[in-house]
Amino acid sequence: MDGLGETLGMLSARTKLQVRRERGFALPMTILLVAMLTVMLSAAFARVSADRRVADSTEWTVASLAVAQSALSTYMNSQTLPPTDGDSVRINVTGGYAWVVPRIIQDPPDPVLPKKYVIRSTAFVIDPAQGSEPLATRTVAQFAQWQPGDIRRVSAFTAAGDNPAIQEEGGAGSADMWIDGEDQCAEAPAIPGVRTHNSSQLAANNPDSESRNLNVGGSAMQVALETGIDWAAITSGEALLPDYTALVPDDTTYKTYYIDAYRLVTNNVRGTGLLVITGELETKGSYFEWDGVVLLGRHLDTDASNTEIQGLLVTGLNTLTGGPDPHYNEVDEDRSHIYYDSCKVRRAVARWKGFVPMPSSWVDSWATY
Question: What pLDDT, in 10s, does the model give residues 279-297?
Fold first, then answer.
């Protein structure tokens, strides 16, 4: 019995020791498990928080681009005078504000020629619920030309082409052609009726023997340069955003037309505004009547019974760019009238006063230092 009791005592002691050992192992494992769960939960919360910050950051980044572009467009569309270099303007828009700064990159001495700018807009996104500190910033830029909204009034009819500059069908003085540099709306001083170079075969007087007030001399290129017209920018699309690329007969709203054609033939057309044709204008039918400004790359061929332009006419502008057939200008035997009218000239080009974006020149991330 004593041996059995001793054995049982030993087993009891061993069992107690094992229980104590198990209790010592369970506590660290519990602590480790709790720690692991805590780390995992913290990581999950951190990831959620990071994802939320990324989402917010993306939202503010997109908002900053919208604010910068909105302020840039507002600035460009609101200017009535060419800004000075480095002028800084704060523009408030939905979602924040932006500082817009124009920089002159080309300033021709001639005021009729367009200045070229790079306009920078730096946006600051503001959320009133989060205070006045900007949540995001971004700078965009646009290259643009400042169009003065006018055209040099060299003469009622400026013929820049060569060989010869102007020819009346059948010889000088044989056509029923009337040219007058007196202002038809009596708001501006008179200008020469015709400006051309030394090859002109145009008679000095109108059919009623009144002087056409010719200004003859120099080369075809000299005459073309005197117009101050940037024909390369016009024909490349940098200087004009036309309303139409085909004629809209009887429109009286003084729109802008740009027609890329070697020869445009019209038949009984009346119109107003700025008419730009890269090639020749040939008038047919009973009449062609235009109020405003007509710019031709090649020449005018008057086959209509009556062709009348009140405003300004410039032909042979392909001389400036070497375009197709810049060398020939003629006025045929049918009746033609070309009268200077400053009011109609002003209406035709007034809409081009202001900034015109240069093609493919917008920068969505302008470097700042």
Answer: 999 999 999 999 999 999 9
